[in-house]
Specification:
This protein is mainly β. It is about 10% helix and about 35% strand. The chain has one domain. The termini are far apart.
């Protein structure tokens, strides 16, 4: 599945409520996903959150300032969820990017 990025390396999404990591994986397989209001387990694995930006590379669109708006405390924990498909399998590596509140 390919999502139209309209000539950019990223796309801002319009989710407003948290969705499960399974749904994020299903919708955005093959992309890097920036998630806010992230809920993680005790091992720092993503459980759910609001995906707000997808990209072809990590932090795609940062030069446009797309992430500045998400520094507000109302967005809670920020999370980077990687769903690229190297060698035919899904890599679900993750990294806690920022924790607010």
């Amino acid at each position: 599945m390919s999502i139209e990025l309209h000539g950019k390396s990223y796309k801002e999404l319009c989710h407003t409520v948290p969705i499960s990591v399974e749904e994020i994986n299903s919708l955005y397989r093959g992309y890097w996903v920036y998630v806010v209001n992230a809920e993680v387990d005790d091992r720092n694995r993503l459980l759910s959150g609001i995906p707000v930006v997808i990209g072809e590379i990590a932090f795609a669109g940062s030069e446009d300032g797309i992430y500045k708006q998400y520094k507000d405390s109302k967005y809670g924990r920020h999370y980077e969820h990687i769903l690229w498909q190297p060698d035919g399998f899904i890599s679900s590596l993750h990294l806690l990017v920022s924790q607010n509140g």
